[in-house]
Model the fold of this input.
Amino acid sequence: MRRLITSVNNQLVKETSELKIKKYRTAADAFIIEGARSTEEVLSSGWDILRAFVDVSVESERVRKIADELEAIGVAVFEVMPEVMQRLSDTDTPQGILVVVRKKLYELDDFNQNDEGLILVLDEVRDPGNLGTMIRTADAAGIAGIILLEGCTDVFAPKAVRSAMGSFFHLPIRNAQNKKEFINWCKDNNWSLWSSSLEGGQSIYGAELAKRTAIVIGNEAEGVSSELLSASEKLVYIPMPGNAESLNAAIAAGIILFECVRRKLVTKSTDVL
Done:
């Protein structure tokens, strides 16, 4: 029988609500996700779900089905009053179900599974919404994974996870990677390091991809840091014939990644011919 939580001051509610703050996520080694779609994604991903909360006022067959599936695999499911869900949630309009998930941490060697591939590297990207969008875009592009260098927003922040819309669980993501160690790893493992740059580079449409390419997208305001620019084998830019000075970081990442996808598709069709 599921336990009903009626008080916003319940200790478990307090501990879960604190996971909206980075220091508590770090201490607990856990984070929260919200909504039916994201919960379905984590259910099928193999990630460790620690507990779940369901709003008793939500009349959704989909949510009830998910709650039953969670219980069937041994996850503790708590029914909560709407005001309790409001405290747990990071949104103004909670979606009826929220789960706590144990972090899965990836190492650099997890990106060495294939002899060729593409990695998206983020350098001091601060906006969690942009980060989530880039995760979703990278998933759609079918790349090998994402590496967040030190100085980026926390990949486990609720807005980042929510913006990724389930793609968070589809590809390896390395969080808070030291820049110097990353640069050395690229050299030692034959990853060609590229950085997006408005100055001194060549058009992404003319740059020849290496078998293993790691492409760096920089901070929304200042671009890629000098340390990464200096270490890069190639600097690339997106031609902009209009009057705008720059693109949103997530938009720029999408254009670059799908240009790489286009190249692969063209190469495959040529090979068939």
